Amino acid sequence: MQRSQYNALVERKDEIGMHSIGRALVHLFNRQTVDEKQTNDAKHNNGVGFTSGDAFKGTITAKYYLKNKKLEEWQRDYWLDRDAKGRTRIGKYYRQIKEEADNKRKVA
């Protein structure tokens, strides 16, 4: 999946877009270390999982999605918020999400 396709998918304002963000957050959450998952923090600067600025909300939102199979509108809006470069908060994780998708395709 190309970046433009990924962005179009997560930016949808429907259930498909919501689940795309939720699944992306779960993939990032699964990349966190065990201690990071437990403390909702990014303790290791390893370029894997959430950045330190997103770790708390990312782990909490991923856990919420895993439990409820949905995101609230404010949670979705948070991950679609844009930075100074115009990139969505979830969009900056494209490389890691693409790696997960590629790995899933190899297994299937």
Question: What structural keywords apply?
Answer:
single chain, 108 residues, 6 helices, globular
How would you characterize this protein structure?
With 108 residues, the protein is an all-alpha fold. The chain contains 6 helices and no strands. The mean pLDDT is 88. The protein is globular. It has helices at 3-10, 15-31, 34-39, 55-68, 73-80, 94-107. It starts with a helix and ends with a helix. The protein has one domain (3-107).
Ordered list of secondary-structure elements with their pairings:
Layout: H1 3-10, H2 15-31, H3 34-39, H4 55-68, H5 73-80, H6 94-107
Task: Give, in order, the helices and strands.
Answer: HHHHHH
Mean pLDDT: 88
Strand content: under 5%
Point out poorly predicted stretches.
none
Major sheet characteristics: none
Strand elements, count: 0
Structural class: mainly alpha
Number of domains: 1
